[in-house]
Give the backbone structure.
Amino acid sequence: MDLFSITGKVVLITGGGGVLGSSMAEYLLKNEATLIILDRREETVDTAISRLKKISDKVSGFACNVLDEKSLTSVANEIMARYGKIDVLINAAGGNMPGATIGVDQTIFDVDIDHFKKVVDLNLFGSILPSLIFGKEMVKHKKGAIINISSMTAQSAITRVVGYSASKAAIDNYTKWLAVELALKFGEGLRVNAIAPGFFIGNQNRDLLINKEDGSYTERGDTIIRNTPMKRFGEADELNGSIHYLCSDASKFVTGTVLPIDGGFSAFSGV
Ligand SMILES: NC(=O)c1ccc[n+]([C@@H]2O[C@H](COP(=O)([O-])OP(=O)(O)OC[C@H]3O[C@@H](n4cnc5c(N)ncnc54)[C@H](O)[C@@H]3O)[C@@H](O)[C@H]2O)c1
């Protein structure tokens, strides 16, 4: 038996049209999973699906807001009617918003609380709601794995991104909490883990880390590299090995963990 086989596993990725979600989607399809991607806008889903169909036709997608319980429920019903099960849920919809970031010349007292709340909504409730609605289907089969996406901002303070940090810290706790709840009440087949990516250049942080004019690092980008023992940013496909492991039976006794994928950033004191 291949411990790492994910052939035929039905994997649902929220934010599947984003930078990290689509890289995971591509990798999992190549490894014979059956894939469903969910993203907020129809055109994002369509673009992703037409690219992914070149790899395999075992992919479908839904336009759905992860904060909208009704549309999540109708997607869950459609998935169950079509596939009869959900093996893995990857909560990759999330991110930061400019208004919830403290500007270079600002302090915490300038924070926009409405934007702060929106970021918490997206990152925390945008993972809680899908994990409850799709998790209910997993519980019926007594089997399923949920993978959340945490961040380096969860464990220690990273300047400026206060709303994002608070929401990702909450994700770490929710990952542990839900892992305990599901295993205690529904059995060992249900697992909940998270990955904590270090710094990957994405849509939401590109301007913070790289100067548009010449592609050099900003002061913030430089500081991150100085504090990363491997001395570089991550590549999206470097998350795939951990995602594969957490989807597969190779991790069947693993639940409630948050796995850093960060080139050593979280292990380093900076000295
Ligand atoms: N890129 C990084 O360096 C990094 C580091 C750590 C953690 N993360 C986390 O990884 C996850 C993915 O990040 P990314 O860099 O791929 O971001 P991204 O912006 O490229 O992708 C996020 C996707 O989520 C979708 N989305 C946003 N709100 C949604 C909603 N309400 N309903 C449905 N879909 C919605 C977006 O349309 C987008 O396609 C996020 O949770 C992010 O916080 C990213």
User: Anything to note?
Assistant: The two ends are 45 Å apart (CA to CA). Residues 203-233 form one domain.
